[in-house]
Amino acid sequence: MKPSRRSRWRAPTPPDEKARAAGLPPKAILRADPAAGCITLDTETTLRGIPPEAWTYKLGNRCALDWVLDQYKEKKPKDPTIREKFDTYRFADYKEKVIDLLARVTTVSVETVRIVAAMKAAGR
Predict the structure, then answer these.
(1) Concatenated DSSP letters of the chain
(2) What CA–CA distance (Å, rounded) separates 48 from 11?
(3) Quick one: which of 39, 61, 46 has its CA closest to 105?
(4) Would you say residue 34 has pLDDT above 80?
């Protein structure tokens, strides 16, 4: 199953000018807005055109798209020693991978909702 196309929107002027000037990647946000059908990944990238059906597919009690976003958030370990030595995860390193994964999860979610609706309509 091929992932469906979603539009990627970049801010006309990067709102994170200080980070750019310092040579840092854009700040990760990873926030979903089901009402608008978009996902904001960082201060410069927003994915738009996500169909409403993708938000209705749940894994347990959570939307599959929200679950993916939660898994890729930057989390700081509480222990200072672990934070100092092992906190090397940066969202910017995985941004393209996450965009591809979100496209695939969106496709699977929409198709699953469509199949379940067809099964309900067919009856027994």
Answers:
(1) -PPPP-EEEE-SS-S-HHHHHTTPPPPEEEEEETTTTEEEEESSEEEE---HHHHH-EETTEEHHHHHHHHTS----SSHHHHHHH----GGGGHHHHHHHHHHHHHHHHHHHHHHHHHHHH--
(2) 13
(3) 39
(4) yes
Please tell me the pTM assigned to this model.
Answer: 0.83
Residue 42: half-sphere exposure toward Cβ, Cα within 13 Å: 24
**Tokens read off for 59:** 């894994």
Give the per-residue pLDDT at 64.
95
Q: What's the CA gap between 30 and 52, in Å, rounded?
A: 18
Which pLDDT tens digit goes with each residue over 70-98? 999 998 888 989 888 888 889 999 999 99
Phi-psi region of 60 (alpha: psi -120 to 50; beta: other; left: phi over 0): left
Residue 29: both structure tokens together? 């946000």
The position carrying tokens 């992932």 is: 3
